[in-house]
Amino acid sequence: MELKIGIVTVSDRASAGIYEDISGKAIIDTLKEYIKGSWTEVYRLIPDEQHLIEATLRDLSDNENCTLIVTTGGTGPSIRDVTPEATEEVCEKMLPGFGELMRQVSLKYVPTAILSRQSAGIRGKSLIINLPGKPKSIRECLDAIFPAVPYCCDLINGAYIETNDNVIKAFRPKS
């Protein structure tokens, strides 16, 4: 099974061309370091509109068959931040441990991490993870949670993810 990964940047300003999407690029660059072997990125840049986020997540899961979908942006407390709501709406199961760990890691660096609403869930054979919007925070969060990602994808019958053990080591329990 081909490994496809959806990368979704949720940003009104970046989607309008006001500034460059550096967060989506940070995710792609990090995953290129983490993942051994080939994989296909399916990139989307969309505004903070819940119906668009939901439609994009559904498309990446149901039509593009992405095993992993990683979003950035829209996880704060402002009125336009609706990525976690969209994720919860399209997922069959939520995985609160991902958000708990990301906030715990981020709190080591900034006290405002308690305002963050990162989350994760499962839709079909896709693991959807909502990351923060800043590249530095994206890397810190991915470093913390990614060891569990390949095994989670195994459990939902997604494509196999092999990590570059020199950069990050996947944890798969011994059977």
Q: How is this fold's topology laid out?
A:
Elements: E1 4-10, H1 12-15, H2 22-34, E2 40-46, H3 50-63, E3 68-72, H4 83-90, E4 93-94, H5 96-106, E5 120-123, E6 126-131, H6 135-145, H7 149-155
Parallel strand pairs: 1-2, 1-3, 3-6
Antiparallel strand pairs: 4-5, 5-6
Helix pairs in contact: 2-6, 3-4, 5-6
3D architecture notes:
There is one protein chain. With 175 residues, this protein is α/β, with parallel strands linked by helices. The chain has a single domain, classed as MoaB/Mog-like domain (Molybdenum Cofactor Biosythetic Enzyme, Chain A). Helices cover 39% and strands 18% of the residues. The protein contains seven helices and six strands. The protein has helices at residues 12-15, 22-34, 50-63, 83-90, 96-106, 135-145, 149-155; strands at residues 4-10, 40-46, 68-72, 93-94, 120-123, 126-131. A six-stranded mixed β-sheet has the order 2-1-3-6-5-4, with helices on both faces. α2 runs parallel beside α6 (135-145) and α3 crosses α4 (83-90). The longest helix has 14 residues, at 50-63. It starts with a strand and ends in a 20-residue tail after the last helix. The mean pLDDT is 96.
Spatial ordering of strands, largest sheet = 2-1-3-6-5-4
- Give the count of helical stretches: 7
| CATH architectural grouping | 3-Layer(aba) Sandwich
- Main beta-sheet annotation: 6 strands, mixed
Question: Which CATH first-tier class would you pick?
Answer: Alpha Beta
Instruction: Tell me, rounded to a whole number, the average pLDDT.
Output: 96
Report helical residue fraction. 25-40%
CATH fold call = Molybdenum Cofactor Biosythetic Enzyme, Chain A
Q: Let me know the CATH homologous superfamily.
A: MoaB/Mog-like domain
